[in-house]
Amino acid sequence: MIKAALSALTDLQGNWDAAKVGAWAEAMLALKGRLVLTGMGKSGLIAQKIAATFASTGTPSFFLHPAEALHGDLGMVTPEDAVLALSNSGESEEVVRILPSLLRLEVPIAALTSKPESSLGRAARWTFLYRMPGGEGCPLDLAPMASTTLQLIWGDVLAATLMDRRGFSREGFAMNHPAGSLGARLLKVEDLMHKDWPRIGPDAATTEVLEAITAGHLGMATVEEGGRLLGVISDGDIRRAFKAAERQGRNPLDLKGADFMSSNPITTKPDTMAVEAAARMEARKVTFLVVAGEDGVPEGVLHIHDLLSHKVL
Fold first, then answer.
1. CATH number, domain containing residue 139
2. How many domains in the chain?
3. Which of 147, 193, 216, 259 is the Cys-Cys partner for 198 at CB 3.0 to 4.6 Å?
4. Measured between alpha carbons, how far is 79 from 67 in angstroms, rounded to an integer?
């Protein structure tokens, strides 16, 4: 089977029509509606995967089961849509039977098939062909194997072409994958940071410091003066300051904000990738980072819990 699939892929690599793919891609970029994938049987399963790939990479798309389309679901297709139909033979009964309705709607049709002279091939405006010099690779020469592999590859070629021409970005991918680990690793610090956090002045009394950190629920506070970041105070800083005051015979309640803070805190920029910020936090053994702009003015706080809840860590 591997030999059959490899020979088919080798043939496709040397014979695919880049100009035709480019023309189809330009038409899809101008499309006002959605890209509708359809196919029957194993080709239908591949079509569902291709539809999911398009949808997640910037091209609104869905799968239409051709048998269900014959019983009313064809109403889901509008004249503003386009169709990409999969059929190895190009003669799958259910697919062929919906072609006249699609043509009456003047919906542009593209086909993935091995038979350019088939009913599907003749109805399609763009026909993306593949050949199988070594057959399907099935021991009985019955089950679709190499053909579905080629359909899958063709789907990825088309999706990748549209991604490139659309200028689809990492940010777009992350927006389409808010709960996925892939998308999570593409999030930026500004997507996760707290824009409201505890802030105190250097002369804040001990009670003010404790109240601010308790109310903020982040286990920290920034120390600022005139919009300038002077330092940060963590739970650990408070414990250490209290121990130092005890050794010096000072009353802890006489301490001020500046007595608690750690100067020169670790900061990160809003457009830093969240995964990079996570690496810095792990390397420095800290649980939060102050987010500051180019001018050094604090804009937010990124906490390790934010990274964990969004599966960046």
1. 3.40.50.10490
2. 2
3. 216
4. 20
